[in-house]
Write a structure and sequence with these properties.
The protein is 10% helix and 30% strand. With 111 residues, the chain is mostly beta strands. The chain has one domain (13-104): Roll (Ubiquitin-like (UB roll)). Strands 2-1-5-3-4 form a five-stranded mixed β-sheet, with no helix packed on it. The longest helix has 11 residues, at 41-51. It is globular, with a radius of gyration of 16 Å. InterPro entries: Cytochrome_b5_domain (IPR052320). Belongs to the cytochrome b5 family. GO terms for molecular function: metal ion binding. Keywords: Heme, Iron, Metal-binding.
Length: 111
């Protein structure tokens, strides 16, 4: 059947959609995005770039951990879970979505 032919397959269904918060520290704007659990940070960056800020490549993508005491740059090839931005969907308490913080690097070569 035609539906079994890999030529006609355009993608896979995500295991789980995730809500994330992206904070641009330069403009103090916050955007909420729903992304696939399997998306890498690079994929999320490209979606953010298309929708909100085409200079997203000129920013460092960071996360805070240990209660906001330490800040680290995200691995663009890793997923949210691989970068430590976990989401406890089985929790009884509703938690805020994981946050990604964008810091402008003044790198005009990346646009």
């Amino acid at each position: 059947m035609w539906s079994q032919d890999p030529f006609y397959h355009i993608g896979t269904v995500t295991k789980r959609a995730r809500l994330i918060r992206i904070v641009n520290t330069l403009t103090a704007q916050t955007q909420y995005m729903t992304v696939c659990n399997e998306d890498s940070i690079y994929d999320i960056q490209q979606k953010y770039k298309q929708r909100y800020n085409h200079h997203a490549g000129s920013y460092e993508w960071r996360k805070f951990s240990n209660g906001g005491k330490s800040c680290s740059i995200l691995n663009l090839n890793g997923t949210l879970d691989e970068n430590g931005l976990t989401d406890d969907e089985d929790s009884n308490v509703e938690l805020p979505p994981p946050s990604i913080w964008l810091y402008y690097t003044d790198d005009i070569t990346i646009a």
